[in-house]
Design a protein that fits this description.
The complex is a heterodimer of chains A (79) and B (159). Chain A is mainly α. Chain A folds into 2 domains: 38 residues; 40 residues, no CATH class. The longest helix of chain A is centred in the first third of the chain and has 24 residues. The two termini of chain A are 25 Å apart. Chain B has one domain: Beta Polymerase, domain 2, CATH 3.30.460. In chain B, helix 2 runs antiparallel to helix 6. Classes of the chains: A mainly alpha (79), B alpha+beta (159). Chains A and B meet through helix 1, helix 2, strand 1 and helix 3 of A and helix 1, helix 2, strand 3 and helix 7 of B.
Chain lengths: 79, 159
Amino acid sequence: MTAIQTIDREALEASAFREQCRRQMARPLEARMKYGFCRVHRPVLDTPGTRVFSSTKEYREWCADNLPAYLGFQPAPVE
Amino acid sequence: MNARQPFNPLQAQLVAEAFNATGVDYLFIGKSGAILLGYPGTTQDVDVFPAKSVENGRRIVEALLKLEFTLNENTQGEIIRGKDFVQLKDGPFDLDLIFAPDGIESFAQAKARAVREDIFPVANLSDIIASKKASGRMKDRLDLHLLELFRVEYESRMS
């Protein structure tokens, strides 16, 4: 794909997503919640119990150390 | 341990009703807050940013017990003291109490900018985005581009 084709495709995708945003905002709150809240199994994170962290930093470190990478809780590379 | 009930997508409504009835001072944040504003994404958890005070903590505990969360004395104490991050998975649904979210300077300032969607007090979309930017997590970085596109549409609708 050329650079121009990539730009065109990204613009089309952004436009389609914004249309999706407009449709979702037009829905009543109950519909937004029914579309938006769903259960997906997350290993370790979904283990029953209570976890308390003294700081948000501590929570982030726990996630990075304990959760599978594919869940996306690891720190993003510095840009 | 509380037996897990079938998943209820209206869990945010249960939180709002219980917290509002008990007088909890709080805001919905994170992706759950954005979804309430109309963001077409998905999440499993409800994220709440409560004001940090002993009185508010007591109200939160009262509301959570009414929702049938299992909270031992130690956890109740942590909530009342406003420990920065309390992750509750012993209730009818998962709930995160975040007393110090990344990227938001204070509850008072967030509340001043907050919006109301029906019974739901929700952090301003700018604060939700700022918090996700500040978190530095892979999953939040992936969401940011879409949240910014949503912001364009949201602010256009609100203006």
